[in-house]
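chain below, 240 aa
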Amino acid sequence: MASMRESDTGLWLHNKLGATDELWAPPSIASLLTAAVIDNIRLCFHRLSSAVKLKLLLGTLHLPRRTVDEMKGALMDIIQLATLDSDPWVLMVADILKSFPDMGSLNLDLEEQNPNVQDILGELREKVGECEASAMLPLECQYLNKNALTTLAGPLTPPVKHFQLKRKPKSATLRAELLQKSTETAQQLKRSAGVPFHAKGRGLLRKMDTTSKTVPAVRPVLFLLALRVVCLFLTRKPLR
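prediction:
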């Protein structure tokens, strides 16, 4: 019966966590790691694949602290089994987590104590050296300005120029200037057309244009009045 539970748990874990395209343990793994599952994992841990072992070990970090305290003994047994594993990554993660169930903290003093970690860090440094520096920065660096980013990560290497943009031809520049001028002219005409026109009152008389040799046709009344005054002046009787 115990062997049946071990095989069932191992098969179930491989179906849930056996995918190799995602090597990080999702937060949803906390709902899978119940007390009964942890007890069965202790029995079948040595038969699991390295990817499943790593996800299980990293998945313990998503467990609530109360759950960790309740399953402290079983978690310590699983981590102890991982410290005897043949996979170097499983060994390193187990060494990091060995103080987590008891103290709630991670063991980060690894490079000087564990030669296996030195080899893994050497491989990581080679991989990081092959990648672009900006791609390995923390995600919060995307929200920093240039000065803050330089202070945090140091001077970054400028990106490699793969091509150079050609200058626009003169015809395109001239066309852009003409379009801008036409737009400005249209705006000026629109503003001038929008100014209201205040007409003068009809009862006001304009000053007569004395420079013109002809009498304007629009002022016949004044002309007739002036002619009548001249006639009266000529036909008046002389005084005795």
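Confidence is low (pLDDT under 50) at residues 199-205. DSSP finds eleven helices and no strands in the chain.
thats it, cya
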